[in-house]
Amino acid sequence: MVMAKGNWDYSGEPKLRILSLGAGVQSSTMALMANEGAFGPLPDYAIFADTGWEPKKVYEHLDWLKGQLKYPVLICKNHLKSGSIKQDMIDEVKKEKGFLHIPFFARNTKTNKIGIGPRQCTRNYKITPINRRIRHLVGLKDRQRFPRDIWVEVWVGISTDEAMRMKPSREKWVKNIWPLIDKKMSRQACLDWYEGKNYRRPAKSSCVGCPYHDNTLWNEIKVDTPEEFEEACQLDDMIRDSARNPDIKRYLHRKGVPLRSIDFEELLKKKKKPEDQLDLFNNECEGMCGV
Ligand code: SF4
């Protein structure tokens, strides 16, 4: 599926085909299917934008994937920061009270209302580093104008159940395509695709302390990797009074309570409506996180 944009000329062949690799379920499936030729030509590169705070099992899966794919996997980071989104948040909290990049939940202690803060992390840690790497791959410097006769195809791993996340790139020289949508594959269809294959199954990919986690994922982190859960709890403790307004308390969990105080198993037992487990990625991200 193609979204035409502006009057950029997308005729002919793209200069590069780039597979955006999050190393989660959808993008791993897309990468392995591409490797088998399911989408025609192979991508020239897969690019993994590393926030530096993915779960250990995602990094292990990425290493395994690199060994499977016939095309190179490149890793890029936000080159202006420390290399770890967690460390950057710690530095920001220590430096000054104010803007943080992760969309924390905020409770106003006067009104008791809970809202969610702005999200800049996907752009700063994923989209911009990937675009910068692509510019370098086509031989351009950071601020050099992109030649109008060149365009790059970027394969984004969104499945049919997350189709609302399909967005054209803000860069006119990038034409996003969604190969899993074209194959009418849901996330479950991606998981089913592994049946009978000798492939390692991917896990959900997202930053360890991402506020978009649902309770099932928080519980998994707490039970399976308590050391990673503790890292998230420490950041959660640290951000509490980081807003300029002293009436605002920040949290990683949507309930607006300290993460370490939550009994997730109890919450999951009480779950009545599916929207309690609404995955915020569906509304907020651009196919770069959680896939
Ligand atoms: S996974 Fe969450 S915290 Fe990490 S970059 Fe994406 S939205 Fe931000």
Strand content: 5-15%
pLDDT averaged residue by residue: 91
Q: What's the architecture, going by CATH?
A: 3-Layer(aba) Sandwich
CATH class: Alpha Beta
Q: N-to-C terminal Cα separation, in Å?
A: 19 Å
Task: Tell me the structural class.
Answer: alpha/beta
Q: Helical region count? A: 10
Rg, alpha carbons: 20 Å
Element pattern in H and E: EHEHEHEEHEEHHHHEHH
The number of distinct structural domains comes to: 1
Q: Describe the main β-sheet briefly.
A: 5 strands, parallel
Main-sheet strand order equals 3-2-1-6-7
Shape: globular
Estimate percent helicity.
Answer: 25-40%
What this model shows, in words?
The protein is of the alpha/beta class and 291 residues long. The protein has one domain (16-271): Rossmann fold (3-Layer(aba) Sandwich). It has ten helices and eight strands. The strands form two sheets. It has a five-stranded parallel β-sheet, sandwiched between helices. Helix 7 crosses helix 8 (226-239). The longest helix has 17 residues, at 121-137. The model has no long low-confidence stretch (mean pLDDT 91).
